[in-house]
UniProtKB/TrEMBL annotation:
SUPFAM superfamilies registered for this protein in UniProt: Acetyl-CoA synthetase-like
Signal peptide: none
Name of the protein described by the UniProt record: AMP-dependent synthetase/ligase domain-containing protein
Source organism: Triparma laevis f. longispina
Domain AMP-dependent synthetase/ligase: 69-488
Keywords, ordered alphabetically: ATP-binding, Nucleotide-binding
Pfam families per the UniProt record, alphabetical: AMP-binding, AMP-binding_C_3
Amino acid sequence: MLRISKLSRQGVGRGLREAKASAAARPSQLRNVSSVKSNLASAGGVVETGEHMVDGLLQFNTIHDVQQRACTQWGERELFGTYDDGKFGWMTYAEFDSKVSSARGVLTDLGIKQGDTVGVISNNRWEWAAVAAAAYSISAVMVPMYEAQLPSDWSYILNDAGCKALMCANQDIYDRASAECKASVSSVENILCFDAKVGESHAFATAMEASKGVGGGGIVAPGAEDLANLIYTSGTTGKPKGVELTHANQISNIYGTRQIVEDPLEFMRHDDRSLSFLPWAHSYGQTCELWSLMAHGAGMGICRGVPDILEDLQLVKPSLLFSVPTLYKRVYDGVHNMIQETNPIRRSLMTNALALGKEKVAAENAGGELGGWAGMKHNALDGLVLSKIRDRFGGNLRVGFVAGAACPPEIIGFMDNIGIPVCEGYGLTETSPVVAINSPEARKIGSVGRAIGGVEVLAIDPGDGQPLPAGSEGEICVVGPNIMKGYHNKPEATDEVISVLEDGRRMFHTGDLGTVGTDDFVKITGRLKEQYKLENGKYVVPTPVEESIGMSRFIMQIVLCGANRPFNVCLIVPDVEAISKELKLDGGDVTVGDLQSNPDVLKLMEAEIQSNSKNLKKFEVPQKFHFVNPFTVENQMLTPKMSVRRHVAITTYYDEIGGMYGDTVVEAKSA
C-alpha cells in the first residue's frame, strides 16, 4: 500500500479542512441527545436515571466501565441466554457481575497482572465474556482466537502476543493447544478448560469455585488509552497481524453510533434481545453486539452454532440481529425457491405480497403511506404471507444489521419488502471496527451509510495521495478515534497503513476502493489488491461481479479470476439441493462432480450467469465456470467472519482454473 508523502499529507490536511467547511455549511444530520430526552418526556416516555446515566444513556470511558456500570444499573435484567434441553436459560446482569468477580480472582491466582495478555480459544459463551471483563478489570489484555483455527495459528498468536494464560472451550481444543504450547510456546504458564467439570484440576469451573469466597481480587481499572484487545486478523496471505485496540478505540464506536442515529434510546432499547452468532473474537461481534448491547441494558441469546441458527431464532426471538449477508441470503433463496416450487395459487400470493411490500416501502420513502385498495391488500397478504417469512427470524425482529461483506441491494430490498429494515455498515478490525453505518431513519441502499460521529471518511487518489472530489472513486481512508494503536510487533506494517497528517491526526488506509458522495454516504466498490488486469489491459474489480452473479438462487459462493488472461472465469459453489429440485435430479446423493458432468445443469448455470450479468460490462462476465465444493472455515477458504479467502481458493483449484483456459499453467498469485 502506498504511503503518503509529506507533500501529500499537506494535501490531505487541506482536503479535510475543506470537507469540514463543507459539512459545516450543510444542515446537521445529527440529533442532540437532549432533544431526544425532551421528545420522550413530551410523549409520556420514561427516561432512566442513575449515577452514570445522562439523558437515559449510560456513560463510560472504558469497556470495564461498561460492564461495571451496566451490571449496577440493570442488575435484574437478562443478559446472556444459553441453550439447555430445548430452551434458553438466562443469566442476569447481577449474576454475570458475580461471575466476573470470580473470574478476576482466577486471573489473579494465575499471576495475571496489568499489561499481561490472556488468550482465549472459544466460540461465544458467557465464560468468554466473563474472562474478557475480568481481564479488563485488572488492566490486562484479551487475545481472542477461533476454535476453527489451525493449532499452528494458535501457537503463532500466543507467541507473538506473549500470552501468560490460555482459556480453551472444550477438551479437544485443550488437548491440541496444550500439545502446541508444550512444543513451541514458552510464555503460557497455565491452561484452563471451560467445559471441564468442577473438581477437575484443569477446569475453569474449579478455579471459579476456588475464587468465589475470596472476593475476586482487587480491581486495577484501565485507562481509556490502555490496550483492551489484541485481535489477530485472519488475512488471506501470510501470518496474521495483531491489531492493538484500546478501550478508547472500541468505546468511540458506541458513542459514534449514538451520534449518527436520530434517537439513540430507540436505536438500541433496554428490552432488545439479539441472537449472538457472530464471533466475539472478531471486532464486529465484540464491539457492535457484546459491548454495545451491554451498554444499553439489552440481552443476547448465544447461538449454539451455524447449523442451529434457524432453530435458535425461534427460541430466542431476537428483536435485533447482527449478521453477515449469508444469513439474509439464506432466507432470500429459501423464499424464492419456494415460489418456484409451490402451486400456482400460492406462488401468486407470495409474488403479490412481495410486490405490495415493495410498493409500501416506496410510499413510505416518499413520505406517505400505502392506502386504498393496495393498502388493504397489503395488510391481508402481510398476515397470510409476509408475517410467515418474518417468523423465520423468530417473529420479533425489528431491525437487522449487516457488515463483514457487501450485502447485495436485492437482499436488503427483499428484507424491506417483508417488513424488516436492514442497516448495512462498514468497518475493519483496524477501525474497532465501525467506520460508517446506515441508520434506520437514514438509509441509502447500495451504500454502507454515513461516517459515525467523530470519524471522517475520504476517497484518496492511490497515485498521488490527494483527496478526490465527492463521488470520485479512490482508496477509502479514515480519520478518527477508532483507528487502532498499531499492529503488534510490526511497526513497518503499521507505517504502511497509517499516515500522520499535518495537524497530528492519524489516517488509516483501508485498501478498499470506494466513493464518498455529496450527501456523505459511502459506497465500497472493491479492494485495491484484488483489482487485476486482463490480457487486453482492461481492469476488473471482482467483488461487484461476484455479488451480481452470486444473486442466483442456484449459487452459494463464487470466486472470479482472470489476471493476465484473455477473459474471466469463475469457481462456483452450487446449491446442490436447489439445482436438484429444479431439474428433478435423483435423490440426495447428487455430488458437485455429478453437476459438472450434467449438460442440463451446465445449461441452467450458463443461463443464470447471463441473467445476472445484465448490468455488467461484457469483459467482466465470466466465459467459463467450474463447480467446486463449499468454501469453509475448516478448509481454510473462509475467514471466521465468513469472507472468502480468494487467494487460498484460487491456489487450491489451480489446476481446475487452468483447465478452463485449456492449459496446464495458470497465473494464480494475483487473480
